[in-house]
Amino acid sequence: MASNPTSRKKFIDSSIILARSFNFHGLDLYWTYPKSNSDMINLEILIKEWRSAIILEAKSSSKQALLLSLAVYYKPKINGTLNYPSKSLAKSLDWINLMAYNFTSPNLSRVTRPHAALLDQDSGKNISGSAGIEDWIKSGIPSKRIVLGLPFFGYAWRLLNRKNHDLNAPARGPIGGGDGSKGYKEISEFCVRATITFDADIVEELLLFGNNMD
């Protein structure tokens, strides 16, 4: 869609009509994630054209302009290689939503790790929500236009040794099927029976339940 001018216009026009028909305050684009420089160029064009269309629609309808936001990778450079057009986005968006979570999972790490740390656990790696915010500001996005995304889910590791249950404790994969992710309801139920510890270094809570760690 983003690479084709005709498709972009249809998408933009239909999104504005939809937003107005349901009395939405605005629109948010969820693109996870652009995979190439061409994708980034097309994203920049899409956002620019979208903003222009929103301004024109507001003038013609005499209504307040719709808000426009974008869900983004937690840093302005995806996987350290692919840059968002930050300065251009700053001119066209009301804010960006940083997806500061899914840093790891039981399928990716055989030791327990924070998947949504607010602060850095390991000096120099800069894998955290705070590191992401700092990098986005440096890239040209004003701090007042940055929203930190927080997950309503967590991950559960199956520990090798219950006595070793802190961060970086050896584990043998996820609990249950899939990737070990647990939703808010499941976590709330765990909290009733689990031992809860708060790690101030990363600003994250850890739950110990049975022989497992969430």
Describe this structure in words.
The protein has 214 residues and is an alpha/beta fold. It folds into 2 domains: 5-99 and 117-150, TIM Barrel (Alpha-Beta Barrel); 154-208, Chitinase A, domain 3. 33% of the residues lie in helices and 24% in strands. The chain has helices at residues 5-21, 37-61, 86-92, 129-139, 184-193, and strands at residues 26-30, 67-73, 77-78, 82-83, 95-99, 146-149, 153-155, 157-159, 171-174, 181-183, 195-199, 204-209, 212-213. The chain is elongated. It starts with a helix and ends with a strand. The mean pLDDT is 93.
Quickly list its features.
214 residues, alpha/beta, TIM Barrel, Chitinase A, domain 3, 2 domains, five-stranded antiparallel beta sheet, four-stranded parallel beta sheet, 5 helices, 13 strands, 33% helix
Provide a compact summary of the structure.
The chain has 214 residues and is an alpha/beta fold. It has helices at residues 5-21, 37-61, 86-92, 129-139, 184-193, and strands at residues 26-30, 67-73, 77-78, 82-83, 95-99, 146-149, 153-155, 157-159, 171-174, 181-183, 195-199, 204-209, 212-213.
Q: Structural class per helix/strand content?
A: alpha/beta
User: Which homologous superfamily in CATH is the superfamily of the largest domain?
Assistant: Glycosidases
Query: Portion of residues in helices?
Result: 25-40%
CATH class of the largest domain: Alpha Beta
Distance between the termini: 39 Å
* CATH T-level fold name of the largest domain: TIM Barrel
Tell me how many strands there are.
Answer: 13
User: Low-confidence segments, ≥5 residues, pLDDT <50?
Assistant: none
Structural domain count: 2
From the spread of the alpha carbons, the general shape counts as elongated
